[in-house]
């Protein structure tokens, strides 16, 4: 019932601007589909790669904090604990790989209003001992937590230009995305993707057991970062601002 009013309101708000910056092609199309008259430019979120570079000291501190030994293979995920982020799938994938440790970093910013909170709370409570939900952490804590990981999965069902998998890639981890149409239009370089839990598990097993594939997957992650370099995006923003001024 509210949707027509919300659509009208957003169209009016966006139309006040001289330009609107969308962070992904999917967002750009969504704004244009509202009937906004303002030009829409697509400029992605920037990433400061050096901020996430792993070191042995960071890795040691992160694994100590998480209670993970040097022999453990640690799979990570980062995001809000809600249904659309793929928390159910994360737990199911982890249950299928009991030989690995799994850590989810993230909280519930909407608390009781979080979608699926009761179902997820029950499932998290029943999860195996190798699965750990450590809650929300500060940005300052994240470099050592990323450094502790050996692989990163991002099972979210809806995203635009997510930063967590890029931060994980910058820390040197192979990253596996869910196969979403939003990513196909966003990323310029190849990336690992899985259509379902079975494919997530298969790719993780290859990363664990095949050193050559692990190196290839890590190289794909690093290559993916190129289009999000903060210096390149700074140039795009300055160029956009200059065009407006002129």
Description:
By secondary structure, the protein is of the alpha/beta class. The protein is built from eleven helices and eight strands. It has a six-stranded parallel beta sheet, sandwiched between helices. The protein has a two-stranded parallel ribbon with strand order 1-2. β7, α8 and β8 form a beta-alpha-beta unit. The protein is globular and about 60 Å long. The model has no long low-confidence stretch (mean pLDDT 94).
Low-confidence stretches: none
Structural class: alpha/beta
Helical proportion, percent range: 40-55%
The N- to C-terminal Cα distance equals 43 Å
Strand order of the largest sheet: 5-4-3-6-7-8
Radius of gyration: 20 Å
- Mean pLDDT level: 94
Number of strands: 8
Number of helices: 11
The major pleated sheet works out as:
6 strands, parallel
How much β-strand is present in the residues?
A: 5-15%
Shape assignment? globular
Summarize the helix and strand pattern as letters.
HEHEHEHEHEHEHEHEHHH
Record the SSE blueprint:
Blueprint: H1 3-15, E1 20-22, H2 25-33, E2 40-42, H3 56-66, E3 74-78, H4 87-95, E4 101-105, H5 117-126, E5 131-135, H6 142-148, E6 151-154, H7 164-170, E7 175-178, H8 181-186, E8 192-194, H9 197-209, H10 211-224, H11 230-245
Parallel strand pairs: 1-2, 3-4, 3-6, 4-5, 6-7, 7-8
Helix pairs in contact: 3-6, 4-9, 9-10
